[in-house]
Amino acid sequence: MSDTLALRGTLEGHSNWVTAIATTSENPDMILSASRDKTIIVWQLTRDETNYGVPRKALTGHNHFVQDVVISSDGQFALSASWDKTLRLWDLNTGTTTRRFVGHEKDVLSVSFSPDNRQIVSGSRDKTIKLWNTLGECKFNIQEDGHSEWVSCVRFSPNPSNPVIVSCGWDKLVKDSITMLWDLNEGKHLYSLDAGDIINALVFSPNRYWLCAATSSYIRIWDLETKVVVDDLTAAYENQRDNKKDQHQCISLAWSPDGTTLFAGYTDNKIRVWQVTRV
């Protein structure tokens, strides 16, 4: 017996690329998705045969692409990053913006809550990382010894007693197919995995020793224990183009908190839902 993934359904509601997906253990029947249509959709998961979920609310206010969205640890608030140079804090109960964060000079590409939800970090195409409080005040600006190019991803480590921010950028513009795994205690490179195509997003399974990579051709899933490929997930697209450069692809990934469901956002504006099944 082994685990694999099967396509379970789709979520349709966006009119442009699905750039980010967020899930929360506080409400397993809700997910959020961000899009280039300038909105964030709050989905109610119904898990029906015909429709896996319905859009419950559209969070509007950004006037450019929404690039990232995350949910606070209590499941009450969301934080979004946009190419309109701002962040927004949203009350998920009311669907309204409670705070705008203004200070970046270019597109904001990534955002993250600290584990206690009291601090916020953002990364931007202006090459800076900013640390904010929840009142929208920028408390710290990281630029010295920082990135020389766009800051494409920022995240807090999950340990509140030792707050560490991790960031990555476009300094070396490596758009290759290699995933490198590192031992942070030893600071050494453990091994590399080849996805066979440009990687758009990576996510670890919360309860299996799996790593998932969204590439321009498929979603590749590795078992990190055996280092073998568990599955390559491919989707059927309507109106697919012949030119590989113009083909639809997966650009965002998120696991359900219980690790049974993988949500994948695509450039055909859909979220596809993959479910772990035993074969």
TrEMBL record:
Pfam families for the chain: WD40 (PF00400)
WD repeats (start-end): 11-53, 59-100, 101-133, 252-279
SMART domains attached to this UniProt entry: WD40 (SM00320)
InterPro entries tied to this protein: RACK1-like (IPR045223), WD40/YVTN_repeat-like_dom_sf (IPR015943), WD40_PAC1 (IPR020472), WD40_repeat_CS (IPR019775), WD40_repeat_dom_sf (IPR036322), WD40_rpt (IPR001680)
CDD domains to which the protein is assigned, alphabetical: WD40
Matching PROSITE patterns: WD_REPEATS_1, WD_REPEATS_2, WD_REPEATS_REGION
This protein's UniProt keywords: Repeat, WD repeat
Gene Ontology MF annotations: ribosome binding; translation regulator activity
The keyword Nucleotide-binding belongs to this UniProt entry's keyword annotation: no
SUPFAM superfamilies, per the entry: WD40 repeat-like
PANTHER family tied to this protein: RECEPTOR FOR ACTIVATED PROTEIN KINASE C RACK1
Name the UniProt record assigns to this protein: 9444_t:CDS:1
Species whose genome carries this gene: Ambispora gerdemannii
